[in-house]
Amino acid sequence: MKDLSPTPDRPNHLPAALTVPVEDFCDHLSTLRRSPHTIRGYRADLIDLMAHAHTHGDDTLPTIGTSQVRTWLADTRLAGASPATMQRRWSAARVFFRWAVDEGLIDADPSASLSSATVPKRLPATLGVEQARHILDDAVTHARGDESPRGARDAAILEVLYGTGLRVAELCGLDVDDVDHSRQTVRVTGKGNKERTVPIGLPALHAVDEWLSRRPEWVGPTSQRALFLGTRGGRIDQRVVRRIVHTHLRAEPDSPDLGPHGLRHAMATHLLEGGADLRTVQDILGHESLATTQIYTHVSTQRLRTAFRQAHPRA
Known about the structure:
Blueprint: H1 16-31, H2 36-55, H3 66-78, H4 83-102, H5 129-144, H6 149-164, H7 168-172, E1 179-180, E2 185-189, E3 195-199, H8 202-214, H9 238-250, H10 260-273, H11 278-285, H12 290-293, H13 295-311
Antiparallel strand pairs: 1-2, 2-3
């Protein structure tokens, strides 16, 4: 099966008339502060589209027609692509050609008449409130069993992720000064460099205090003001955080294999089940659209239905 994952490699055999517009488009995305991950994905998909067009005789952007974009997407599907991959590639082509029209590089958008692939909605795996409390308590106890600074750091990471619902990149970007103990809040820099203030509970604050008492043992020339450090003293890497969460939660027999985003899902779901309104949860999570937050209402509804079927005599 063909590997359809995005790769940043630039093929040398493509004419500049096809590759330069892609590079200019990626520069445009950078000015819009799109994430490097998004830009890499779009760039890889578009280079693949240009290679497909070149193979079929198109050496300039204006010569690429709807049929070429359609056959490129069809080849992607025949190669075994998932609906999510199809959606990503359609989106890359759609946004690129709209930009090209706006820039005067082409007269018409060849992807305009093509419909997107439908990505089935999947409810995120999550934890029940009591299950989360039990698993997190045991995981934190296990982390603190390591008497080195690592134990205090890992415990604080677990508590902060569940206590605030931060994305893993947001947690890694925290500085010491971002934690306001008096107000029990954390200043977070989210997507698009947008700042928001998130409440943080006492268990997470206490865990952060324990880590801060050990943090000087790892401080080095590259530490600066980073809240969470790696063993070499630099700001902690996202891969390390994911490994910490997987390692400690996997050690619990009743725990699903959740990563940092699983703790974020659990926190959001439990807030809604506890009576928080959707708009508040949206602000805490840093979602641009309320529709993104609404998936957690689906999780809560599904749990209610399951409980109803199990408990009601006439369900």
